[in-house]
């Protein structure tokens, strides 16, 4: 991974109104679905609708996820619990890549039936 790809906060693979990303920090990492259009009301509506399916989504993912509605609904997220491996652990980058790939596939599989009404093509 190039130094350019890593910010002080985290690295995101994609950006858009609704996207999946892998976030890597110094000492931990996680994957998440981000709902972040410029329309705060739209973000809140999509997040709250998805929240009604929380138990079903957790069951499909295989564990509980972390649900966050950010201030002013500019960004709402559904995240995996953090892995205890971060970008600082250079010797574990291959393991981290494998774990994040597995989690991205799991979160995608858990959420894909909701993509049509979330507006994901």
How would you characterize the overall build of this protein?
This protein is of the alpha+beta class and 121 residues long. It has one domain. The protein is built from four helices and four strands. It has a four-stranded antiparallel sheet, with helices on one face. The longest helix has 19 residues, at 93-111. The radius of gyration is 14 Å and the shape is globular.
The main β sheet shows up as:
4 strands, antiparallel
Distance between the termini: 28 Å
Run of helices and strands = EEHHEEHH
Gyration radius over CA:
14 Å
Q: Average pLDDT, to the nearest integer?
A: 85
Would you count the extended β strands for me?
A: 4
Please bin the fraction of helical residues.
25-40%
Structural class comes to alpha+beta
Instruction: Tell me the strand percentage band.
Output: 15-25%
Strand order of the largest sheet: 1-2-4-3
Give the number of domains. Answer: 1
How many helices in DSSP terms? 4
Q: What shape does the CA trace take? A: globular
Low-confidence stretches: 1-15
């Amino acid at each position: 991974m190039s130094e350019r790809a890593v910010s002080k906060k985290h690295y995101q693979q994609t950006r858009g109104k609704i996207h999946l990303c892998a976030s890597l920090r110094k000492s931990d990492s996680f994957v998440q679905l981000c709902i972040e259009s410029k329309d705060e009301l739209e973000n809140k509506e999509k997040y709250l609708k998805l929240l009604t399916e929380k138990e079903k989504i957790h069951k499909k993912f295989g564990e509980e996820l972390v649900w966050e509605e950010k201030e002013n609904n500019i960004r709402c997220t559904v995240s995996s619990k953090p892995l205890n491996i971060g970008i600082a652990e250079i010797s574990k980058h291959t393991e981290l890549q494998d774990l994040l790939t597995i989690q991205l596939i799991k979160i995608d599989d858990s959420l894909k039936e909701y993509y049509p009404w979330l507006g994901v093509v």
